[in-house]
Amino acid sequence: MPKSEPLAPTAAPTERQAASGRRWTVLAVLSTSLLLCGIDLTVLHVAVPSMSRELHPSGVQLLWIVDIYSLTLASLLVTCGTLGDRIGRKRMVLCGFALFGLASAAAAFSSTTPQLIAARVALGVGAAMIMASTVAIIRVVFTDDRERAVAIGIWTAAHSVGATIGPLVGGVVTEHWGWGAVFLVNVPIVLVILVVGARFIPESKNPTPRHWDLASVALSITGLAGVVYALKQAGEHLSVDWKILVTALGGALLLYAFVRRQRRLAEPLLDFSLFADRRFSTATLCVISCFGSYVALLFFLTQWLQQVGEYSPLRAGLALMPLAAANAVGATTGPWLSARWGNRAALTGALGVFAAALAVLALFGTAGQYASLAGPLLVAGYGAGVVMTLGADSIMSAARPERSGEAAAIQETSFELGAGLGVAVLGTVLAAMYRVTLPELPGLAPDHRAAVTESFGGAADVAAGLGGSAARDLLDAAERAYDSGFTAVAAVAAAGLALTALLAALALRPRPSR
């Protein structure tokens, strides 16, 4: 993670010159690593139905499998950046690659749900170690301002491209080799990156590194985990008992203590004083809301198409390509829209367009009729791409130049935190609506009834054991309930984005001149 302190390479002058001559090789290694991290954010989305048939996770466990990666990554980005400044950024990145490869192999061969969740946590830790120091390495290697701007642009695009093509990669791999292979493909790529990275990436440290505050790390991780766990438990049981309430309150208090501690520390892990600028705080909220809704849409849309529309994994991945292509176009044309209409109007309009597309999807989208989905997906992808680009640019431009490091840290964290929270919050909405709309289905044994209400995968397993018209009736009921859940997800996300657009329109107004 970039810092505002001076970045001083520890390598000898001749080594620095050689590294500068091979700087584009370094960029290729770092961008490939970010591409992998982005792919792993969404690659499992298409493979979930196949994985569920083998591991039989509960609804809450399924949400943990999907978003524990991004939540772990978000909670450790700043921490790993500070630690990399102390021990050396090359060492941090290479150790991250090694952990990422080992965790990928562990995930591929997981035979139980807890094993897969643990492997996904390790993947998040490895990705945080990789992402935290790559921008700082780019700033060391690319000394020319113009080349550095191009390099950072390429590096930023690599992660977004990876997240967007993840479902397609997952569909292709799952179709031919099974869900475990979506992780196993990382291993040979990581081995190549380790060899090339060890040869070409120069070592660098911060001569005056920040203090690494272990208490702040513990507060942020445990607090976030407590709040998300309580949210998912409430969605699973459709009730809030004293255990869920205590967990949620405890997590919130830990997060409050984390914020208070950062304000008191001379060298905080996360500088919250930046949020005093309403442009900065509003842009951060826009990024969290937009990227969270976008990643959640990728995830739940792939499940909806496979479970209700009966798409194959490959076909579901291909169905998302209009969304991905429109997102790339929106990201590249966002600066032009901002230059023509102003950042406030472009950002607010893009949020409104994204919200409207999700509303249309909720009202008229049908899993079995792709023609009803293509238009809303194109519009949603374009709006999301504009918001991601302009939101990230607004975060950086709102901060003073000497604080660009802290701003970049918050920018990256907001993307990953948005991804994790988006799946967690909207997944709870889907699980609750699925259970509410599922009919009584008399005649099922208690254990079968529990499995059916737990998840769509459980309903499919029970139906496989019934056979005949009873199985078809059960699947029809589960499909209708899941369809209602996806409709609720699209509607809630649309409402959240509309509120975010209204907030952006009000908060990003220029200050009146005195």
UniProtKB/TrEMBL annotation:
Q: Sorted alphabetically, which keywords does the UniProt record give?
A: Antibiotic resistance, Cell membrane, Membrane, Transmembrane, Transmembrane helix, Transport
Q: Which residues form the signal peptide?
A: none
* Major facilitator superfamily (MFS) profile domain sequence ranges: 26-513
Q: Determine if Coiled coil is one of this entry's keywords.
A: no
Q: Name one GO molecular function term.
A: transmembrane transporter activity
The record's section on Gene3D superfamilies has:
MFS general substrate transporter like domains (1.20.1250.20), Multidrug resistance protein D (1.20.1720.10)
Biological process terms in GO annotation: response to antibiotic
Topological type in the membrane? Multi-pass membrane protein
Q: Does the keyword Endoplasmic reticulum apply?
A: no
- Identification of the protein by name: MFS transporter
Q: Which organism is it from?
A: Streptomyces subrutilus
